[in-house]
Specification:
By secondary structure, the protein is an all-alpha fold. It has a domain of 94 residues. 52% of the residues lie in helices and 3% in strands. The protein is built from 7 helices and 2 strands. α1 runs antiparallel to α2. The longest helix has 15 residues. The two termini are 25 Å apart.
Length: 145
Amino acid sequence: MKKIDDDLPSWPLTIPPEKVCFFIMKARQFDGKDAWSNEGSSSNPSDDAMIDVLEDGADDPVQEEIRSAIWALSIDEQIDLVTLVWLGRGDGTALDWQEVRDTATEAHNGRTADYLIGTPLLGDYLEEALSMFGQSCQALESSHL
C-alpha cells in the first residue's frame, strides 16, 4: 500500500482494509437501528408496517452477522480491529500503532465480539483509523450501493 507521509507506516495490519470496510458498513447498519420498543409485535411484518426491522433486538440479524464475522477472524485480526477502534477514538496515531496494539494484545480475551458490538460509533472509529493509514472504504461502498 502507498504511504501518505514518509513518517507514517503503510499498512502494518494482518487484517485487510476490505475486511475493516465490511465491519464499518455493518456497524453503520447496526447503529442506525432504534432501541427495541414494540414488545407486543405481531409476527406478520405487513401487520406492523415493517417497523420491527428498524429496531435493535436480541436476535438482530445484523448484530449476529457482525458477531459471526468477528469470530471468524484470526486472533491477530481481532487484535488489529480493536487497535483500530482505539486509534480511531483518539488513543493514539498511526505512529503509535505498535504500542497501542501491544496493549490490545494484553487485553485480548474471548469477548471481542461483545466488546466491539457494544462500542458506540464503531464504524466512525474504524473509518477514522483507516484514514490514518491513507485507506478509505469509498470504492468498496460505492460498489455496494
